[in-house]
Write a structure and sequence with these properties.
Layout (H helix, E strand, L loop, with lengths): L1 E8 L4 E6 L11 H13 L3 E5 L23 H12 L6 E4 L3 H8 L5 H9 L7 E9 L7 E6 L8 H10 L8 E4 L5 E10 L2 E10 L13 H4 L11 E4 L9 E4 L1
Parallel strand pairs: 1-5, 2-3, 3-4, 6-7, 7-9
Antiparallel strand pairs: 2-10, 5-6, 8-9, 10-11
Helix pairs in contact: 2-4
């Protein structure tokens, strides 16, 4: 686990996109949709990104999901494609997590592609999970924003199972926003918390994917396993640091 502090220029609205599960190298990966989100971050003022892991597919021949019919692409090529795409927004990336696909590469002696990208681009590395504390400069009189980001481990086929796993994290970790990838679901929920001091909002987000379950002209492991088709994309967190009450964070899909 890691923890990172980032200071952002104060603004009425700060937007944060949580992107992950691209699986670059899989024939069903939609790099074009991923690039659209990158362009949005680049062109939108006060907009930042957190990357949630599994950016690279890296299904090796020793893996049961390996398909000899898929076009092979070198791991170095795949990670360089992502690094080049992220270069224009490197100053807007708050943190990058690794995922189970990158961890498998690391265990097999290939090194961690995410750690390499972070070193090359000068971006904080978050391992599999991290706290990200955001504050504004010049400092406002209101609370900082605490985010807990976790690549995830569970991929139940029902949406309820996935978001329940995210909400359960609030029993053990203290944050305003909980971000979890891995399940490929794109869903957000909100919980209002009441205390002696008033109320505040907590957000829970499954952060989606850019990998199609099935595509015409290919036969991938998602289709073979009967996984449900999912919409592509990522959640957008909107933080209003100048708001006086506790209801200053929102999420859209």
């Amino acid at each position: 686990m890691f923890k990172v502090k980032r200071t952002l220029p104060v603004a009425e609205q700060i937007e944060i996109l949580a992107l992950g599960d691209l699986h670059n190298g899989n024939p069903n990966a939609r790099f074009d949709k991923f690039q659209e989100s990158i362009n949005y971050i680049k062109d939108t003022p006060n907009c930042y990104a957190i990357f949630m892991g599994d950016l690279i597919e890296a299904i090796l021949p020793s893996d049961k999901r390996y398909s000899a019919t898929d076009p092979y692409r070198n791991i170095n090529t795949l990670k360089k494609e992502i690094k080049d795409a992220l270069e224009p927004i490197k100053d807007k990336i708050l943190l990058m997590l690794t995922g189970n696909h990158e961890i498998k590469l690391d265990k097999q002696g290939y090194g961690c592609p995410i750690a390499w990208m972070c070193q090359e681009l000068g971006i904080p590395y978050g391992g599999i999970s991290a706290f990200i504390k955001l504050k504004c400069f010049p400092k406002t009189h209101y609370a900082d924003l605490m985010i807990y980001a976790f690549h995830g481990y569970s991929a139940g086929r029902k949406t309820g199972a996935s978001i329940n796993n995210v909400e359960n994290l609030s029993q053990y970790y203290d944050a305003d926003v909980f971000l979890v990838g891995h399940s490929h679901k794109l869903v957000t929920t909100k919980q209002v918390m009441i205390s002696y001091y008033g109320y505040k909002t907590k957000l829970f987000c499954n952060t989606g994917t850019f990998l199609e379950t099935a595509s015409y002209g290919t036969t991938g492991y998602g289709e073979i396993a009967g996984y449900p088709p999912l919409r592509l994309g990522c959640p957008k967190i909107k933080w209003y640091p100048l708001k006086k009450n506790g209801n200053n964070i929102y999420a859209s899909e």
